[in-house]
Amino acid sequence: THLIPWLKRSSQVYHSSFVEEGITKACGCPLLPLKSHIKGPAPVSEQDRTDIVDEAITFFRANVFFTNFPIKSPADKLLIYLTFYINVALKRLEGCRTLAVGTKAIINLGLEDIPVPGETGFPFPGLFSLPSSQEEADLFRNYLKQVREETSGRLLSVAYRANGTPNKWWLAFAKRKFINVVLL
């Protein structure tokens, strides 16, 4: 396994269960199926199956405590990216006292430019390979946009209770830094 300096040996993290071969990749990232109605390049997954977004949300509160994350499969790279994205989204939700305000904050996050490897602002240099063409960069950007949008919607359903009030057991994790990466 190729390890990047901040991805050192650790046996405690939760890894992705998606290790299937034959999945289309962009920048070394598998374009895994999503249970989503959002348009994008991701294949559609069956609604009763776990997808990478389910894994990222389920494992987030455990994985966010680690400063090291060994990569065991290409899907772990996407899990790392989504864990970081959830961390960023929770930071945006931190001051939002209602679901309506939180939804607006998440929509604004979704409207921001999404950098791909090699572009300024991409949080993990070396995690994904550089795009070999503009088409690959666009495919990866569109996949990240789709998976981020899907993650945002599902995150809102756990970060806020049914009555629209914040769930402190989720929003408390906004203070954590995942693998010591800070968004500037």
Automatic annotation (TrEMBL):
GO molecular function, a single term: actin binding
A single BP term in Gene Ontology: Arp2/3 complex-mediated actin nucleation
Database matches in SUPFAM superfamilies: Arp2/3 complex 21 kDa subunit ARPC3
Pfam families linked to this entry: P21-Arc (PF04062)
GO CC terms in record: Arp2/3 protein complex
Family named by the database record: Belongs to the ARPC3 family.
Name this polypeptide is given: Actin-related protein 2/3 complex subunit 3
Naturally occurring in which organism (per UniProt): Brassica cretica (Mustard)
